[in-house]
Amino acid sequence: MSNDRLNNRHQRNIYKRIIVKGMLILDTPTCLGSGNSDSLTDLALLRDSVDEDKALLTGASIAGALRNYLHEYDPSLGLATLLFGANRQDDQGDQSPLIVNDSISTEKIDIELRDGVRIDGNKGVAVDGAKYDFELLSAGTEFPLFFELLIEKKYQDLQKQSEYENNLKQGLAIALSGFEKGEIAIGMKKRRGFGRCKVENWQVWEFDLRNSQHRLAWLTFDRELGNEYTVAETLKEGKIEHIFGAVSGDQRDRFTISAKFSLVGSMLIRSGQSLQKDKDGKYSKSPDAVHLKSNRSDKSESIISGTSLAGVLRHRAVRIVKTLNPNIVIPEGKDRQPEIIEKIFGFVAEDEKRKDVLKAQASRLIVEEKVIEKPTELVQPRIAINRFTGGAMHGALFDAQPVFSGEVKLKLELRNPKDKDNEYEIGLLLLLLKDLWTGDLPIGSESSIGRGRLQGLHADITYQGNTWTIQGKDSLTITPDIAKETLESYVQQLVKKVEVKS
Known about the structure:
By secondary structure, the protein is an alpha+beta fold. It folds into two domains: 10-244, no CATH class; 254-500, no CATH class. It is built from ten helices and 28 strands. Helix 2 crosses helix 4 (158-180), helix 7 crosses helix 9 and helix 9 (424-437) packs across helix 10. The model is unreliable at 4-8 (pLDDT under 50).
């Protein structure tokens, strides 16, 4: 390399390094797909290339989740670009000063198998050839996280340099607080309840490379170079706000519904696994149809999956909109739905001009996976009847194991209903809540024989600092009293919006 090229080469003047460690724990099953087409399942887990019994969480996945969270937290601050560098559409910006390591699970993989299927919205049945299966990491899986923040000497002015350093620390603190609060999900189908995780405690080391003791401590830190040289004051432990200071500037806008329901009769969301764990943790043959279970705290519990709940909500939302306006405009393309629905629930469709290009939008509705509390599990023998003879069909005896009774707490979160024009979306969610509350919207399979119906008990609705409460079975009580008019106004906005979309 010539001397001219060496002289023109930009070298970062790094004078401080901050190392952060934490243990990430999965709260719900997580889908970290490998893209391996040779797997026995349609979507296999990503495994470590050295120890294939352990799962791999890539640094790119972690960084992507953190960057997206930081951008949503306050896009006006520009902290996402400062901490993670420029994006591909914008050449303005520097290399990311944050190093994010890959992470390997601490224990061997505990796999859950799930089935997925696309439902024909008009017929209400599965689309032919649209069934698939995928592997999930069980809740409780742990991943050690490792970050290193490089602070560069960018300004001669001490005030500007101090401001730059504080902004980097503030951005890192906001991003990591998302893990701490459980607000960041990883992997696929994050907005359908998968990939929820948390970090309860952080360890932070700050090394000032202008100090010879700190330089030596950083050089020997966590490396196979013999004993580490430690400096006591470099380590801080605890919550992220205790270490970096309080985080502020949250500009996110959320509409949330947290509601408690009781099961009316039975519910059956079919599980794709033919084996299930008993009380002793041993696997045994299950009935022909078993309600979906997921591992929680070393035991298998019945759940309402986010994918099932989101599916029935979307189907009912389409029905509501088309009932209000049968002539509502539907975008051109296969399997498209009214724009109001697609803006909330997301969509994927082919571009009519270029068939090789997919147009897509992520769902703005976050649906969580929830455990059914204190369910009763009973096996019901059933048989198919020959409609011509009225007798039992030969070989058609089967048994099902739905869940009975029990209670469940469901949570819906709509992101960014920012202005008056968008509050009609809240009205649509309120109508969906009403249908769930009254048992008119069943969840799961075999709804034609009465399964999957809920009875509302209590709901807390939160929006822009206001909290409204709904409770009661036969007669509803809404507090405060002004909430009735406010909630009704959202529904009226929906009616007006749908009427003009014709």
